[in-house]
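Weekly modeling sync, notes
Attendees: S.R. (lead), two postdocs, one rotation student

Agenda item 3: backlog of single-chain predictions. S.R. asked that every request posted to the team notebook include the full sequence so nobody has to chase files. The rotation student volunteered to paste the first one in as an example of the format we agreed on. Action items at the bottom.

Example entry:
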Amino acid sequence: MRENRRVTSYDVALVAGVSQSAVSRCFKPGASVSPATYARVMKAAAGLDYIPNAAARSLITRRSNMVAVVMPHFANVYSPEALAELSQQLTRRGKRVLLFTIQQESDVEHILGDIWQYQVDGAIIAAPVSDEQVQEFERRGLPLVVFNRNLRGRTVNSVLCDHYEAGRMLATRLAAAGHRQFGIVAGPDAPTVAAERRMGACDRLQELGLPPPVVVGGQFDYASGAQGLREIIERLGHLPDAVICGNDVMALGCLDLARHELGIDVPGTMSIAGFDAIEPASWLSCNLTTLRQPMHKMALAAADLLTSMIESHGSHLAEKRTFAPQLVEGATARLSPIGDASLAA
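Predicted structure, as returned to the notebook:
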């Protein structure tokens, strides 16, 4: 072999005594190949220091085996868990993740040109997409899965946690335990996750005939959780019975202010709850009452759905897979037993 020439699958096939297609199958995840053939090819490849050429393979298969994943750059710390789960599930299916981050959920339009440029096989977008953007994916024949965003009335493949029901669940359990005056530290106006959680809680409290909650804004960060509690107390003129925060980071800011600066007994005098079940929320000094998203199941469903769409060449019918949240009963809120949750009227 000429020195410095790139080793090809043809060279491996010659040394291993197999066909070139057999070599290709050995390096394709999920392909059918006998153990004996696989062992011979791997031994020859190791001896030749062979590395498969992904670009050449994509020319043959007309697939890049890359999937675009679009994530918002929030202070919402569930995003790393979601990205890790998605990456793991896609890698198991022979795909590589090309990550795009956006500052605001409305910035999806700005990165679409890059997605087309990289010739990805499909995309998972954790942000709202417009009808025009969905139509552009369809026009290009590019599979799209919207992750953890509820696009009501849209015909688009999606996988999400039921954030509206999460808000209702938390309000129900708190009200059934005797809480009457609520405060809500909501997230930013743009993210639909924050809006769904707020609407679920507010609608449920209205159904139960309780006073309207005091709703203040937040930015999904620690400081706005503390500031949100100050604003709620100022507007009410007294402590609320319970504060629901749009995510755990804000709930931790609210909790620290209540306990360490205002000297409030949590949960004896006031209950505090959040969403997302991030790792710090489970620490003994916090032990936050929160709701967990089934991120592993959601990532598994998103990877399965996108892979199915890629393999079916666009003939897959649009579907929506919704997963229920799980309540984590920490030590920052007084909750009714599950069986008593209907007694809150």
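Discussion: group reviewed the output briefly. The first strand starts at residue 66 and ends at 72.
Action items: rotation student to repeat for the remaining queue; S.R. to check formatting next week.
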